[in-house]
Amino acid sequence: xxxxxxxxxxxxxxxxxxxxxxxxxxxxxxxxxxxxxxxxxxxxxxxxxxxxxxxxxxxxxxxxxxxxxxxxxxxxxxxxxxxxxxxxxxxxxxxxxxxxxxxxxxxxxxxxxxxxxxxxxxxxxxxxxxxxxxxxxxxxxxxxxxxxxxxxxxxxxxxxxxxxxxxxxxxxxxxxxxxxxxxxxxxxxxxxxxxxxxxxxxxxxxxxxxxxxxxxxxxxxxxxxxxxxxxxxxxxxxxxxxxxxxxxxxxxxxxxxxxxxxxxxxxxxxxxxxxxxxxxxxxxxxxxxxxxxxxxxxxxxxxxxxxxxxxxxxxxxxxxxxxxxxxxxxxxxxxxxxxxxxxxxxxxxxxxxxxxxxxxxxxxxxxxxxxxxxxxxxxxxxxxxxxxxxxxxxxxxxxxxxxxxxxxxxxxxxxxxxxxxxxxxxxxxxxxxxxxxxxxxxxxxxxxxxxxxxxxxxxxxxxxxxxxxxxxxxxxxxxxxxxxxxxxxxxxxxxxxxxxxxxxxxxxxxxxxxxxxxxxxxxxxxxxxxxxxxxxxxxxxxxxxxxxxxxx
Length: 552
Prior knowledge:
mainly alpha, three-stranded antiparallel β-sheet, two-stranded antiparallel sheet, extended
């Protein structure tokens, strides 16, 4: 957890935080504190019994033989997916895509969140479009989330036979042994010091032997059975873990391990801010990326900083820096200045308090007097809000996409790709991104790969986007005859309305044309086979029947 934040601050300014559910108050009565804490958190009773706080994280004690996180998620089962999607193939594909998207060490919570999100997207946009996006995202993330064991090169161990030296090698070894330098002489000082140390250690006497009553009770066999020995050994193996503040209530044995449920730093978000400063969380993201997405916010922040600097120095603000500040992302120093000014404007309340002061005269006599001092009563809350906003600002550096959006070339291409409505434009932007990476050196390899993934995702989004005019063409193709289909194929090349369609709509129409041609060919072949069968078949009244009668 960040050094500026503490559990006491979260309990005072963000009492609804999930981390507080695992840190009950300590008033000196454990049973009363626990019952009151359960009453304040009735919906977290199961989590409180299973989880425990360990420093800055919440952990869960897991057994080695417990089921995998995927098996504990009910909405990730194949039966549930088939019942929601209505198709077994779609259900299998949904489960496979979710497995590819999540990280190998994901827990039950991550599986539930990702599956619930994509179930909601499927209900809004349909299964075909969402499953396509999930498949592309899973393929891109499988290489990123590969474990170290998957990256390791396999090897085999085998016994190597002892290598024998040739006659020439043996001769060289003997010659080298003859010319070998002798060992260095022994160091008298070191030997004397070693003897003194051994003499002191050797005269040690055992004054008291520590006797472990617990080990003697549990580990002695006596007349115990095998089951009793196993039970006593597991009981003795239990250890109580401690931190700097004392016992934390974790009990584990050799067959158990601790699993991190969630981290405090990851749980701190904009909801932890006081209501007066909550709007600054959205500004932090804009100031971090700058340019087209947050350029206006960056300009306003720099104007604020320039105005405050002019008030402090009592000088006129330069026209260039006042009218047209830069739209580039704010640096860490500029963010600190903007944060201080923004919090000062929000928490600008001042009160006058009477304080006592001691003043020592030159002769050593102390004089006490009362004076007035202006203070900010909301100073502690302001410090807490600043700590949360700094944590949100630093957290953005760990996100590769947000960190890349600070580069103008990456952000422009990303916005252009997401704003397209035609796959032809997406293809042109992919070519531009490749040129920026290969020729102009404006993009790194990671940024180009990320933009290529965004482009593929956008193509999947646009694949099922169909206009009303394209739907009319599609209905005509589905009902067309063989001659009408030839006319429609000519119109798709020459009609101005068809030329105005997007690339994905044209591709969809041509796929429909090929499907309709196959249907017409199948119908024609079926009709021809039926006519041939009727041409060579005999009427029922002319069919001769031959009866074979065995002889006597």
